[in-house]
Amino acid sequence: MRLEGSCHCGAVRFSCDSPHPVPYQRCYCSICRKTAGGGGYAINIMGLTDTLDVKGEENITMFHARMKDGLSEGERRFCSTCGSALWVYDPNWPVLIHPFASAIDTDLPKPDESTHLMLDFKPGWVEPQLGPRDKTFPRYPDESIAQWHERTGNVSD
Fold it and tell me: Which of 39, 53, 101, 132 could cysteine-pair with 23, CB 3.0–4.6 Å?
């Protein structure tokens, strides 16, 4: 699926191909929550790095989150004009980028179930909205984004 995305002010537009476009993962970690998640969590999806096309790249700022043992290798990209979170790139998985679903303008498929992860880090005011088939994890699930799409039948042709 070709994903088209942008920031709020329109200074940055981007697109990429995604074999796994269903926005099913809700991350409650403090990094996602504080940099992109107004509802107490953020949703990112998977795209292929070599298909990324960016317009307005001069308006992008990169941020490395602070971890207990130093800076994260993950590169979080934001619009420097309006602050919209755009995507995360991690050099440990160089073929992937993870656009924030909130920045995607393309209609995305609706998940039949959601995975709520990093719940050990959610603030007390956040009550996850759990569906009957949703799964919850204190940290990371064992199932990858690709494995979830395959298990649930959400595989691109």
Answer: 101
Cross-strand partners of 35: none
What are the residues whose beta carbons fall under 8 Å from the beta carbon of 157, sequence distance 6 or more? none
**Using 50, 70 and 90 to split pLDDT, how confident is the model at 136?**
very high
pLDDT digits (tens, 9 = 90+) for 14-46: 999 999 999 999 999 989 888 887 778 899 899
In angstroms, rounded to a whole number, what is the distance separating the alpha carbons of residues 143 and 157? Answer: 21
Domains of the chain: residue spans and CATH: 2-152 (2.170.150.70)
* pTM, to two decimals: 0.90
70, β-bridge pairs: 67
- The CA distance from 115 to 96, in Å, is 20
